Structures are given as C-alpha cells and as structure tokens.
C-alpha cells in the first residue's frame, strides 16, 4: 500500500500548488496533432486510473470513434473541445466526479519540496485548530441524551485526538448518543471516531484503487481511545449535505448495527478522485478508488446512505430527539423511568414556543398551592412565584398542553381536575421522574 499513500500525498501537493504553475495564454487555437494527443492522453488516463475498467474501455472506444469522424478536429477552441469530450464520456457512463477541463493554470504542477510540504502541513494544522478540528458542539440534552455535532473529519488525526477524546469523555455517561452529521461534508479517515464504539478491533470496510492490486482495509483501533469505549445506543443524524467520509462513517456504523441512522438520504459521494494533467493545459479529474460492497455494506455512490428512520429536513434535531425518546419509552423498564422520559418529551415540546391556552383556561389554575406556590395570569400567560426559589422571582411558564407547563429547568407542573370539575391540585413533575402533589389552598 506504499504506492497508494505516495499517490495521495502527491495529490495533496497538487491541490496545494496548482496556482501559478505552467501558465498558458488563453485564447489559443489547437492544432490537429494537439487534438489527437489530447484524445490519447484522456484515453490513457481513463484506462490507467478510472475505477471501472469496463466503463473506461467504452469511453475510450467512443472518443476514438468521434476523433475518426472528425468531430473533435472541428473544435480548435480548447474550452469547447474539453467540454465536448467531457460530455461524450459522461454520455457513455454518467459519473458526477468525472471531469475534463481546460485549466492552463493547473498544468504540470511542481511537486512540493520537503520544506514546502512541512509549511503546508503547519498551515493546515493551524487552520484546523482555529476550527476546533470541526468539533462544533457537545451538549447533554434533557433525558441524559448526549449530543455531538461534528462538521468534518480532519486529516490532522493525531493533533485532534485529545480534543475528540475530551468531547466523547464528557458524553460518556449519557444514556444515548446523537451524532449530528447534517453539516458534515466529509474529510479524511473515519476510524479515529469509529474506534470509540467498539471494544475490539473491528473491520469497517474495504477500498479498492487503481494504483495498487491490493485491497485497503479499514479497522477500528481500540488502542487509540485511551481506554474509552462508548457502549450506549448511537443515533446518527444525516441530511442531503452529509457526504464522503461522513457517509463512510454512517454506512459502516449502520452495517455493523452499531448505530441507527435518522434523517435524510445522504449526498451519495463515495469515490475518491484525483487530478491528472493531460498536457497542453488540459486536466482530468478521475475517480480512482471506491469502497467494496458486501452483503451488509453497500457502496453509496449515487444512492447515498439510506436512513433507518426518515425525518424531514424541517424537523431536524427536534425530529431526531423525538425518535430517540420514542425508542427509550418503548424500552423503559419502570414507571419512574417512563416519567423521566416523558419529562424530556414535554421539555422538547415546550421548546417549540407553543401558544398559551386562552385566559379563561389559565384562570382555572390561578391561586396559591401548598408550600406558598402562587400561580397567576399576566400578559396572556401563566406566571408563578415560588417561595422555595426565593419567592420574589416571577417564572414564566411554557405550555406543553392546555394543563401541563414547564416551570423551570427541573420541574414541570400538571394541573389536576377533581371529581367536581374544579382544578384543585397540581402535580410537580420532577426531571428524575418523581411526582409531588400540591393542593390548592
């Protein structure tokens, strides 16, 4: 696999240094020999690098036929010729990653010197640190649900390891972990994250490429997690923008039945691409590697990773939380556990800023309850003064239903109607599932 690694480094160097090399004046016209040379160069690059050899052969055959017919020799403008060849090969086999272009500023890029490569790596590390290695948010949501928003897979895995470990350690005591990849466009290796979810070394998936006859296998590495193993259920939230490495992580976790995917079908970008100079200012972008499909793991190119539970983009995180709470409720073993989950569900509903019930309904709840807790109507909503919280602060209650409200970060209240039809008591619903009844004085 040494050849494969070297190629990737060369491609990195190419992408970092394409500007400013081999400038060719625009507006030039091509000779018949240059047109013929381009067809030969495209053919050679496709046959050598394209991940589907049979498709490459079909593309080459069609280009040769077009050249014989004189189609290309009419196109002496390089941009027009590049576009025609681009359209022709895509017409034989459509591949969104496959491009032929006239980009004279990108021809014959120079390899990076060791000093340039070191400087580029240093600049890349600085930029990654500035963005906190794409680790955007870590939070514990009601119901002890861990939330981890992760916007990209960094290539600086060694430098990012401490930050990743700290984030996941913070979430290690949560009941369920939600990993939000809706804004994750991919990046580099996924194994550093995957390794936290498997106790033993586990095979994730295989890749094949056109630079080597070997298959590249990806595994988790338990030794990289400093002993931290996360065993809680995992939910991965996806969107149409979830792409590339983020799809690889999602697909492998799904195939290994280690995560439930909720959200939208992902973008469908699995094939790795490289830039290949064709001479005379022309450039090809060609997919050279792809994941290997198995009975449980499918190459997601063009199809995306299909979620286990579909939720609309509009529902987003709230929709994912609803799925998690629903599943937790189904698995709850005790009544107290169910009440704690219901508390979290109520809190989620209240976060939508539901409209207050009519004042006539709210007036039924007004009054002082045991312990001196006073409820009153003001500004179209229900208010509370609680001596147990100092007595002077006024709490604005957020409606969940017409008779259930969120009081504060720990307590919700449920107003209870007696047999005579009057609201003569209320239940204080605590976050941990406890319930305390208070009668109206």
From TrEMBL:
In this protein, which residues make up the domain named Tail specific protease?
121-312
Top-level taxon of origin: Bacteria
Q: Which GO terms describe its molecular function?
A: serine-type peptidase activity
The record, for CDD domains, names: Peptidase_S41_IRBP
Q: Which organism was this protein described from?
A: Pedobacter caeni
Q: Some GO term, biological process aspect, for this entry: which one?
A: proteolysis
Task: From the Swiss-Prot or TrEMBL record, give the protein name.
Answer: N-terminal domain of Peptidase_S41
Output the Pfam families linked to this UniProt entry.
Peptidase_S41, Peptidase_S41_N
């Amino acid at each position: 696999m040494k050849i494969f690694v070297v190629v990737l480094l060369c491609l990195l160097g190419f992408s970092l240094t394409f500007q400013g090399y081999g400038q060719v004046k625009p507006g030039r016209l091509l000779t018949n020999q240059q047109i013929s040379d381009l067809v030969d160069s495209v053919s050679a690059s496709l046959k050598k690098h394209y991940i589907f050899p049979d498709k490459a052969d079909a593309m080459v055959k069609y280009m040769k036929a077009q050249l014989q017919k004189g189609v290309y020799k009419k196109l002496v403008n390089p941009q027009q010729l590049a576009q025609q060849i681009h359209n022709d090969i895509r017409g034989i086999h459509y591949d969104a990653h496959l491009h032929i272009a006239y980009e004279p500023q990108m021809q014959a890029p120079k390899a990076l010197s060791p000093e340039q490569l070191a400087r580029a790596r240093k600049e890349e590390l600085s930029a990654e640190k500035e963005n906190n290695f794409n680790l955007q948010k870590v939070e514990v949501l009601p119901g002890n649900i861990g939330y981890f928003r992760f916007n990209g897979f960094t290539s600086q895995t060694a430098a990012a390891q401490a930050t990743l470990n700290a984030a996941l350690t913070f979430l290690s005591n949560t009941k369920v972990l939600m990993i939000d990849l809706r804004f994750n466009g991919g990046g580099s290796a996924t194994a550093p994250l995957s390794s936290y979810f498997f106790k033993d070394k586990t095979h994730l998936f295989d890749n094949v490429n056109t630079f080597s006859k070997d298959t590249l296998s990806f595994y988790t590495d338990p030794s990289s997690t400093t002993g931290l193993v996360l065993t809680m259920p995992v939910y991965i939230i996806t969107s149409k923008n979830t792409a590339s490495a983020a799809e690889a992580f999602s697909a492998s976790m799904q195939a290994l039945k280690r995560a439930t995917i909720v959200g939208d079908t992902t973008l469908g970008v699995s094939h790795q691409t490289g830039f290949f100079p064709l001479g005379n200012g022309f450039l090809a972008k060609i997919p050279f590697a792809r994941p290997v499909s198995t009975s449980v793991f499918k190459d997601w190119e063009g199809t995306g990773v299909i979620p286990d539970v579909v939720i609309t983009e509009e529902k987003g995180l709230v929709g994912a939380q609803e799925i998690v709470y629903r599943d937790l409720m189904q698995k709850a073993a005790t009544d107290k556990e169910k009440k704690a989950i219901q508390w979290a569900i109520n809190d989620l509903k209240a976060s939508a800023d539901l409209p207050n019930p009519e004042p006539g309904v709210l007036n039924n709840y007004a009054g002082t309850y045991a312990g001196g807790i006073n409820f009153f109507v003001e500004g179209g909503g229900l208010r509370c003064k609680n001596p147990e919280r100092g007595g002077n602060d006024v709490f604005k209650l957020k409606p969940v239903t017409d008779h259930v409200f969120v009081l504060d970060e720990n307590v919700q209240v449920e107003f209870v109607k007696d047999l005579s039809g009057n609201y003569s008591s209320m239940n204080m619903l605590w976050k941990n599932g406890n319930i305390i009844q208070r009668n109206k004085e």
